[in-house]
């Protein structure tokens, strides 16, 4: 990897160790698809196993850092530094044997994300970034796309889910309809918010929006996109996406066009 720093090295090591379990368990999930029991309980156990490995590795390297993780919640220690972890982002894909999910780790310093890593263990793609040092996919520098017209773009989205309230479901479907009439290719719903953000950073897609995302869903992606030259805002173009949980990620050139559709 071209970008190397103590924190990035710690994150990479943790991801690779956890990924060994994840890949093995994914093979078992594929077998469970045809069983009467189904894979649900197995996936829950897998999620917790991956989380434990990540936490153990990160705590071993940085014992004083706080940790916020999807399954276990907050482990409060040093308030200056905090790891934000999503052990399996794209759990539904994992559950159904769809090979599109990732491990996501962000590092926060004084409420600002300074490092992020998103690892797709199936494709062996390591997306990572550090503040001021750029954004990378394996050993290649990443840049967002240069497309400036929505008609030429591919846009990713997520939701609504069964957890969404009725109002959010209505708004999400309305947004989907509005975008569908303005984007040249169909919208994509891939099922992993962190990988969606990584793909914007890599220039594979041009924008992404979603409602009701948790911090661990987006923490690593925030720094990836920013260091690749993209924009991260809420639907009104402000930086309140962590507070209101509504995030818009773009290559920067289509940001205003997307805000015009999404703002409320």
Automatic annotation (TrEMBL):
Its EC number is 3.1.3.25. CDD domains: IMPase. It holds the Pfam family Inositol_P. Its cofactor is Mg(2+). GO terms for biological process: inositol metabolic process; phosphatidylinositol phosphate biosynthetic process; signal transduction. GO terms for molecular function: inositol monophosphate 1-phosphatase activity; metal ion binding. It catalyses: a myo-inositol phosphate + H2O = myo-inositol + phosphate. PROSITE patterns: IMP_1, IMP_2. Keywords: Hydrolase, Magnesium, Metal-binding. Belongs to the inositol monophosphatase superfamily. PANTHER family: INOSITOL MONOPHOSPHATASE (PTHR20854), INOSITOL-1-MONOPHOSPHATASE-RELATED (PTHR20854:SF4). This is inositol-phosphate phosphatase.
């Amino acid at each position: 990897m071209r970008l190397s720093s103590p924190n990035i090295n710690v994150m990479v090591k943790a991801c690779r160790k956890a990924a060994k379990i994840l890949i093995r368990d994914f093979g078992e999930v594929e077998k469970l698809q045809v069983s009467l029991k189904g894979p649900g309980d197995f996936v829950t156990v897998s999620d917790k196993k991956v989380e434990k490995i990540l936490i153990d590795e990160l705590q071993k390297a940085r014992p004083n850092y706080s940790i916020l993780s999807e399954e276990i919640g907050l482990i409060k220690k040093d308030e200056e530094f905090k790891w934000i972890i999503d052990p399996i982002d794209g759990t539904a894909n994992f559950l159904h044997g769809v090979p599109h999910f990732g491990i996501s780790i962000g590092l926060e310093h004084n409420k600002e994300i300074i490092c992020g890593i998103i690892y797709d263990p199936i494709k062996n793609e390591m997306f990572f970034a550090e503040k001021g040092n750029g954004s990378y996919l394996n050993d290649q520098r990443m840049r967002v796309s240069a497309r400036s017209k929505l008609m030429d773009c591919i846009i990713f989205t997520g939701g609504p889910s069964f957890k969404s309230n009725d109002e959010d479901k209505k708004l999400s479907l309305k947004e989907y309809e509005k975008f569908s009439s303005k984007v040249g290719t169909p919208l994509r719903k891939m099922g992993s918010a962190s990988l969606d953000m990584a793909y914007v950073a890599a220039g594979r897609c041009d924008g992404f929006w979603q409602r009701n995302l948790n911090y661990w869903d987006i923490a690593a992606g925030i720094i990836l996109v920013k260091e690749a030259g993209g924009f991260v805002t809420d639907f009104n173009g402000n930086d309140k996406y962590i507070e209101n949980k509504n995030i818009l990620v773009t290559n920067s050139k289509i940001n205003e066009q997307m805000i015009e559709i999404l703002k409320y």
